[in-house]
Amino acid sequence: MVAAAGALGGVLALTALGGNSYAATSGNGAGNQPKSQARVDQAAAQDASDARIKITPGQGAYNIGINDPVKVTVSNGKLTKVTMTATATGTEIPGTLSADGTSWKSNGHLERATRYQVAAEAEDAKGRSVTGNATITTVSPANDFIGHLSPESGSTVGVGMPVTVNFDKAISNKAAVESEIQVSSSSGQQVVGHWLNDHRLDFRPKTYWKPGSTVTAKLNLHGTEKTVTFKIGRSQISTVDAKTKQMTVVRDGKTIKIIPISSGSPEHPTYNGQMVISEKFRQIHMNAATVGLTEKDGKPSYDIKAVPHAMRLTDSGTFIHGNYWGADSVFGKVNTSHGCVGLKDVRGGGDDRLPAAWFFDHSLTGDVVIVKNSADKTTLAPDNGLSDWNMPWSEWVAGSATH
């Protein structure tokens, strides 16, 4: 799932360049595994619910009016649970479910410049459940401001989190706009902006932010002044070795855990490169059709309604997540996924002792995940999620309009 673009108040705008609520995900084993990849994926697709959830406004929407109700509807089924929470505070927004169970809407007004996450569950006539998620952001107090900044003010993030400003309109005079945005760190690191496209300006230092430092972004655009500060937490850099099928988690320079994983299969290898966790979801619906993976009959190669402990790494659908459908013999032994990194888990994600739950609970948005030794030969684009660190520093500086 791609995060909504944030408003001026510093609302989180983690991956605002497109995408949807679904992603590529792991399948079950190959070769000596008890079930083949195709059989597991086919079983998951056949078990898919007929119910279809629609959330309005949709995923990634921003500048939402504070008096406009958020609506959730379902076709071919009934809603069983809907929650809407402010991501920064965890405050739940009350809502009303219709008598027939087919629709829900929020009650009262929303807060300005606030990011909300909507999570819905529904069942079809056969009792098969489906989930839906959307992240939306309400309008900024300065409605004429054209930039949306992340991460949110007051947050604590990992050492890989860039400062991202997304613009509603293409920017032609980049130097003038960039000169009105200053980003600095208490560490004294030099911070430089880079235009990834006409709508997105990111800021980062040459190397990852220093742990424990404070980053300050000052904006003065269209007569609107705003200062956003956020803190860099401890350093956590996790390296996934697709060859050895192990992930090494390094906290503040020390290895704290080595986790067996299953990454992309030879047919669907995982990207190599430096990625950054941009969103965390305790459960998320993953459907292969949304990333172009379908069978000859047009059905999705997989449709898994509640993938646990999912953390987004790219806009194009790469996640690191829990895998409860893979045999124990997969992890650390066979790469079986459609491009994601799978960690051992249980259905529902309720076992805190397992690797997926541990990694989820010990990760921040902004933490770095590096993948190496994958068979993938493509270059991970810096604007695919928060993958800025894959660009050499000299090239990064060259993309500034003021340097």
Automatic annotation (TrEMBL):
The keyword Zinc does not apply. InterPro entries: Big_10 (IPR041280), LD-transpeptidase (IPR050979), LD_TPept_cat_dom (IPR005490), Transpep_catalytic_dom (IPR038063). It comes from Streptomyces carpinensis. The keyword Cell wall biogenesis/degradation applies. This is Ig-like domain-containing protein. Residues 1-23 form the signal peptide. Residues 27-51 are annotated as: Disordered. Pathway: Cell wall biogenesis; peptidoglycan biosynthesis. Residues 236-372 form the L,D-TPase catalytic domain.
